[in-house]
Every structure is written in C-alpha cells, then in structure tokens.
Amino acid sequence: MIEVTSLTKVYPSGAGSVTAVDDVSLHVGTGRIFGILGRSGAGKTTLMRCLTALERPTSGQVTIGDVELTTLSASQLRAARHRMGMIFQHFNLLNSRTAAGNIAFPLEVQGVPAAERSARVAELIDLVGLQGRADAFPSQLSGGQKQRVGIARALAAHPEVLFCDEATSALDPATTEQILDLIKEINARTGVTVVLITHESEVVRRICDGAALMEAGRVVEQGDLLDLLTDPTSRLADILLPVGDPALAGVGESVVLSFAQGNTQEAVISALTRRFGLDVSIVGGAVEAIAGRKVGRLRVALSHPEGHYDRAAVASYLAEHEVSVQL
Mind telling me which GO cellular component terms the entry cites (predicted)? Predict the structure, then answer.
C-alpha cells in the first residue's frame, strides 16, 4: 500500500542546512495499522508531511497504492490527496460549523451532491459514536468528541489511507484509550490502512501491528510488532515493554526472555528450575495482550549452586518452547 524509498528532506538553515528526514525507506501493507514512534525532533512530522505530499522531498520516492506522489503535478496531487484522510493533534475543526457541518466539509469541496453528503454524514456520525451531537458546535464538545468529529471528517471521502499525527496527545488517558479503540474498530470494519505518528509508546502498544522507530531523521528499526517484541535485542521492544536495569539482577546471570504465545511464562521458568537445577529470579518486565497475542518480555537472573550451567542447553530448551533468549 505505502512504499517509501530512500526519502530525504533537507531544509536550508542560514549558511548551512538541516536534514529532517535522512534516507528513510518504509513499507506499510494494505489494511495494517502502522506506528512511527520517536521523540520530539526525530523527524516524524516531516516524514508525515512528505507521505501526504504536503512537502516535496529533496530526494527519494513515496508511492501510495499505484501512485508515485513525487512525480505528480499540483493538480494531480490535489486529486491524490482525496485518497488520504488526516487526523490532527488539535482537531482543526471549523468553529463556525456544527459537527455534521465539519464532517460534510471535504465532501462539499469535492462537489458531492447534498443528498449523498447527508447520507454519508449520518453514517459517519453513527460509526464514530456521536449520535445526538450532530448539531453541536465544537465549543459544545469535549476533547474526545472533537476528535471523533475529526476522525469522521477524515473518513468522509472513503480514503484508502488514514494518517494520524499525534492524534491522541491532547487527550486524557481514558479518552486516549477510547479514541485508539475506535481507530482500531474502524480499521477492522473498513479495511482502511492507518499510519500513526506518535511519541507515545502506549499508542503503538495498544493498536499497532507494525511499527518503526525514528531517531535523528532516520528509521533505525522497523517491522512486524510481534516480531520486534519477541526479539530480545530490539530497541523498539525495550521502549514498548521495558525489562529493567540488568544491574538489578544481583547474583546470577542477567538474561532477557521474550515470547508471544499461549503458554505462560511461569511454566517455562518453573521448568528451567526443575530441568537444569537453576535458581531463577524475575528482575523486571511485563506480559501484555498486543496485536491479539499474549506477549511477554522478562529480565531474569539465572544462577546455579555449582556456579555454572550449560548455557547452550538452556537456550535450546527455551527455543523449543518458542521463547527467545538473550544470554
């Protein structure tokens, strides 16, 4: 669905220049929810502006579906943007229009007939859970309701891709969960591809099935979320499911165990104790439901009364039980 190849964006700055996006390549599959995670200044917003053709890259390509955006004229770009929906951090609603009027606005711009607009607005009001609020103005809506209007407006023209730029960072935690669950439901019901730009790890952890980590304008890691979380060496996994400081392990060898399966981590740990005579202490970590699977990352301290154990045999046993280990 989305293919980004060697994308670079350089801005002039005084006597020099600033590289905001540096040789980024990404692949986002059709119907996926893909998160791009990074701190402020990592280049996420510039990347988003290039993906939506609001900025032309200095070099590289952006392809959405079968359209290569960087080769299009201004008029062709306007037509291509009809295939994209955008959800903003601060809602960007028109204060002079009701909720229904805001949702209808992109359809008016496209010249959709009034009867068709009304039917689509009614459908979207129901989809995002704003029944009874269609005639309310933005000043009469809560933050969560405003964002629901923003989501409905973004979906109005049946986009193929829904871009979300820090869509929940202005909301309280409870409302954030509701909005994220709504986006996930919309993805499941409509099949729209979703790209989330965020600095909040909870956003990625809660609804994404793929992710990329950006630092200093570069994508330093990307892939299927379950694959990343079950890789003990993954930097993104350490952000999403931190396992604690190895210095806290005390006596024993500190190792990281990762899994995404139905088996409980307690059974594997108990088996290690019985089978290899190991003392196992849990230092930190978590087990959570992510992307429909139970995912665990644990830092444990392993020790043996005789002071040594067969590390290769332990690693082989864990691999047989679909547990990745970093010894």
Answer: plasma membrane
